[in-house]
Design brief:
The protein has a 7-stranded parallel sheet with strand order 3-2-1-4-5-6-7, with helices on both faces. It has a single domain, classed as 3-Layer(aba) Sandwich (Rossmann fold), CATH 3.40.50. By secondary structure, it is an alpha/beta fold. Helix content is 39%, strand content 16%. The protein is built from 10 helices and 7 strands. InterPro entries: NAD(P)-bd_dom_sf (IPR036291), SDR_fam (IPR002347). It holds the Pfam family adh_short_C2.
Length: 268
């Protein structure tokens, strides 16, 4: 893709780790179109069966590696090493979190709900980012770490029923800031993109199409977030060389969904 941004992205290798239930791996397609090569990581059965992965591109631009986000640091480190060897380097790590799929009161959540949510949305991205950053500390090397999160973790993004997921997202936002602060001296940019809610998110599953459209009309953008189209340009900027100065920040892409207002009454 022509232009300074396209030139900055061309040749970069992206490690895309996704535990998202919706459209995590689809984020690789616009990056490949901009000249990047992408290594997708996750459960091998999912990588082989997911249409979105198989549609990303040719073998010259796409690699696959099995990575168990619940496997612990040693297992994750080995998986990142295998991913590194596919193209001989990795410039960018993108970790896509899960959507808030368990809608419950804080009093109804089980201990297993908490453990699973914190493992895949906080512990695992920390471990993947940690082992990636250790490899990026080499002199003359720049790298980027980007967490794809949700507005449930923002102070202005509270919604009923997602207390555990929101707590994990808030923790991941803080992790992005702290890692960005401490890894800048190694030339590593760390940030998060908090996306808005999508029509396909479980939070809206119990609503009728008419209700969902009615809620959307009350938002500034008058529509729900698309989990790829509405964040792909922001991601491209942040992982390019132009995005390095934006480190240690959380960027919001929600079409104004989370603006301070009587949101719970107006939307849901």
């Amino acid at each position: 893709m022509a232009g300074p941004l396209g030139s900055s992205l061309a040749g970069k290798v992206i490690l895309l780790v996704s535990v998202a239930q919706d459209m995590g791996y689809e984020l690789g397609a616009p990056l490949i179109k901009r000249g990047c090569r992408v290594v997708v990581a996750g459960k091998l059965s999912r990588l082989q069966s997911t249409t979105s992965v198989n549609d990303l591109g040719s073998a010259e631009a796409l690699g696959k590696v099995e990575l168990d986000v619940r496997g612990g640091e040693e297992s994750i480190d080995a998986a990142v090493g295998r991913a590194w060897n596919i193209f001989g380097k990795i410039d960018v790590l993108i970790y896509c979190s899960t959507v808030p799929d368990v809608i419950k009161s804080p009093l109804e959540h089980s201990e297993s709900d908490w453990d699973e949510t914190m493992t895949v949305n906080l512990k695992a991205p920390w471990l993947v980012a940690k082992v990636f950053a250790k490899r990026m500390k080499a002199p003359e090397t720049k790298g980027s770490i980007l967490f794809i999160t949700y507005i449930t973790g923002l102070e202005r993004g509270y919604y009923p029923g997602v207390s555990v997921h929101g707590t994990a997202m808030a923790g991941l936002h803080q992790l992005a800031k702290y890692m960005g602060m401490e890894l800048g001296k190694y030339g590593i940019m760390v940030a998060a993109v908090a996306r808005g809610l999508s029509k396909i998110d479980p939070m809206l599953a119990s609503k009728s199409d008419e209700e969902v459209q009615k809620f959307a009309k009350k938002m500034p953008s008058q529509r729900w977030t698309h989990p790829v189209r509405d964040i792909e340009a922001l991601i491209a900027f942040l992982v390019s060389d132009f995005g390095h100065y934006s480190t240690a920040n959380v960027f919001i892409a929600d079409g104004g969904q989370s603006l301070p207002r009587p949101r719970m009454k107006s939307y849901l």
